[in-house]
Write a structure and sequence with these properties.
By secondary structure, the protein is mostly helical. 58% of the residues lie in helices and 2% in strands. It has helices spanning 2-78, 99-108, 133-142, 151-154, 160-173, 183-189, 197-204, 209-216, 225-235, 258-267, 286-300; strands at 90-92, 113-115. Strands 1-2 form a two-stranded parallel sheet. The longest helix has 77 residues, at 2-78.
């Protein structure tokens, strides 16, 4: 067997070597033809891919630039950012406070004071005969007054603190907690040490800065009829229903608060005297203030 195998190998091996000699050059020749073609195709395709990328990437970036601000704007609408200067000073006890305010107040230790709608009276003094008796009863009924005043008190002038404290309660009872001035501005004029600071600051935040300045500069901070008219004019944004009559009062032509006084007269908040006067510079008494606030509450409820 071995001689036969050796004989076969001698015959086959040369044939294999001969075939290899024929095939290998052919393979090498094919490789030489294909590799340049592949390289040529790559040279053609790669620039095209890079060109497409150069076109697409800026478009994608442009789309991102358009979409991202829109998304951020939507997020701002959905999750409003709260500034301490936008948080009101007071709210009416028993009324719900928006969750965003509650969370902000707790996290930033901002004081938000509750105002009682119907306070317990400190006395049961029955008011003697007085022109404002009916209005005082109305004020007691709706909870504007903290205590029943005596006749002496009713005829006394009212200052900024008393006026703003009662006015704040009226506004809160009518869901008005909107602010026109930020806390930063209000605190320039209203010191935190004063009595009923939060109610005073609450009303102050609803005014224009010139009116707030003028109010705090009044002699002994006693409120005049014309200044109260301006305060009501600004707080209600002149939106209360007015009569079409043009009241004629000879003593209001030269006042700086003419428009506000006319507005309050037409709404029915201010009344003239028997002599046909408004007395714009007269300091308000407590009885006059109560009368105006009761009428204001009625108008706000319409």
């Amino acid at each position: 067997i071995i001689p036969e195998v050796e004989e076969i190998e001698e015959e086959i091996i040369p044939e294999v070597e001969e075939i290899e000699e024929e095939i290998i050059p052919e393979v090498e020749e094919v490789e030489e033809e294909i590799i340049p073609e592949v390289e040529e195709v790559e040279e053609e395709i790669i620039p095209e891919v890079e060109e497409v990328e150069e076109e697409i990437i800026p478009e994608v970036e442009e789309v991102e630039e358009e979409i991202i601000p829109e998304v951020e704007e939507i997020e701002e609408e959905i999750i409003p950012e709260i500034d301490i200067n936008d948080v009101p000073y007071t709210f009416l006890n028993g009324t719900p406070i928006p969750d965003e305010y509650v969370n902000f107040v707790e996290q930033n230790q901002v004081e938000l004071t509750a105002i009682i709608k119907n306070p317990a009276f400190s006395s049961s003094f029955i008011v003697e005969e007085h022109w404002a008796n009916e209005l005082i009863e109305g004020a007691i009924h709706v909870g504007i007054l903290e205590q029943i005043p005596s006749n002496v008190q009713l005829n006394q002038p009212v200052d900024l603190i008393s006026t703003f404290t009662m006015l704040d309660r009226v506004l809160l009872m009518n869901d008005n907690s909107n602010m026109n001035l930020s806390r930063n501005i209000v605190d320039k004029y209203i010191p935190k040490e004063i009595e009923n600071y939060y109610s005073v600051a609450s009303v102050a935040s609803k005014l224009t800065e010139p009116t707030l300045l003028a109010t705090t500069q009044l002699e002994n901070q006693l409120i005049t009829r014309e200044v109260l008219a301006q305060i009501v004019y600004e707080i209600t944004k002149a939106n209360l229903l007015q009569s079409s009559e043009n009241p004629a009062f000879s003593d209001i032509e030269n006042t700086a608060y003419y428009t506000a006084i006319q507005y309050c007269i037409r709404v029915g908040l201010l009344n003239g005297t028997d002599e046909g006067l408004i007395l714009p510079e007269k300091v308000l008494t407590q009885a006059e203030l109560i009368a105006i606030l009761v009428r204001l509450n009625e108008e706000l409820n319409k």
